[in-house]
Write a structure and sequence with these properties.
Number of helices: 9
Number of strands: 14
Structural class: alpha/beta
């Protein structure tokens, strides 16, 4: 049977009641066994959402003989039973169930029209609201792309300085920084109490020295990396690696593929070339890494 990790989220209706009911549904499924659930955690909304309420987040670990597409379809069925309506990304929802890990497998495939199944979940490695409950029941589970366990990923967020390496083509990375700078990061609700005091600096050091990063408050340094020489001194100390998926797949960006392959820790894979959209993704990732994003 496959060892699987699933996240639960809710900020509409009675999330606690929904979590209990969904746990019962998992336990009664004939092809699912060994169901374990974490505690519920209150977390702040992120990602430019207009949601007024905090979320309840938790994790569910199961063993199953369902294959990944079957499991995803069943999770979508459960969401519909709890009246989940997908109208806006990062928006409020009654129930959100995401398949995070399926053993140590990695795949991406279309499922039922617009749904695309990507495992491991592409945003799980840096989200405290995912990692904090997951550590309670799956600390030793291994993320095959990040090269680390769930417990190690959470510890990485706590022990590293607030440095983000933006790896890729210089024109593309500069477009993202221009988008961030033009807004002074009023992105992803970072100007609200969701991420109060979040600030940014931009630097491209010839030699990386960890203590050059501000170590207090919520200040982040975003570093442009366009060569293996710049990457090598950074790779052990940054908090988050950001890159474009197409660069990993391109034969002309060997250093990007090398950086992604050797980095152990959280990563954000971008698919958009539009600077503002990419900046939104990065800002949401910053907010999700903050200790204050998990209230209790």
């Amino acid at each position: 049977m496959a060892d699987c990790l699933i996240s639960f989220g809710s900020n509409q209706g009675d999330g606690g009641q929904a979590f209990v009911g969904i746990g019962d549904a998992f336990r009664s499924h004939p092809r699912i066994g060994d169901v374990r659930t974490s505690n519920l955690f209150s977390t702040r909304p992120i990602g430019g959402t207009d949601s007024p309420a905090n979320y309840l987040n938790a994790a569910i670990r199961i063993s199953t003989v369902l294959d990944p597409p079957e499991l995803l379809r069943w999770l979508l069925t459960i969401e519909r039973q709890w009246e989940r309506v997908r109208t806006k990304r990062w928006g409020p929802r009654s129930v959100d169930l995401d398949l995070l890990l399926y053993d140590r497998e990695f795949f991406r495939q279309p499922i039922d029209g617009d749904n695309v199944l990507v495992v491991p979940h592409p945003r799980m490695t840096f989200r405290r609201f995912v990692l904090t409950p997951a550590v309670e029941i799956a600390e030793e589970m291994f993320h095959p792309l990040a090269g680390a366990t769930i417990g190690e990923l959470l510890k990485h967020l706590d022990r590293t300085a607030n440095g983000i390496a933006l790896v890729g083509d210089p024109l593309r990375t500069q477009a993202v920084l221009d988008a961030i700078e033009s807004q002074r990061i009023a992105l992803a609700d970072c100007s609200t109490d969701n991420a109060a005091g979040l600030e940014y600096s931009f630097e491209v050091p010839s030699v990386f020295v960890p203590f050059e990063f501000p170590s207090t408050g919520h200040r982040f340094a975003i570093l442009l990396v366009d060569s293996a020489e710049k990457w090598s001194p950074l790779r052990r100390d940054i908090k988050l690696l950001v890159y474009w998926r197409r660069d990993v797949e391109s034969s002309g960006t060997d250093f990007v593929r090398g950086a992604v392959g050797e980095f152990v820790g959280p990563r954000l894979e971008l698919e958009t070339d539009e600077g503002r959209a990419a900046a939104d993704e990065i800002a949401a990732a910053m907010a999700a890494m903050l200790p204050s994003s998990v209230v209790e």
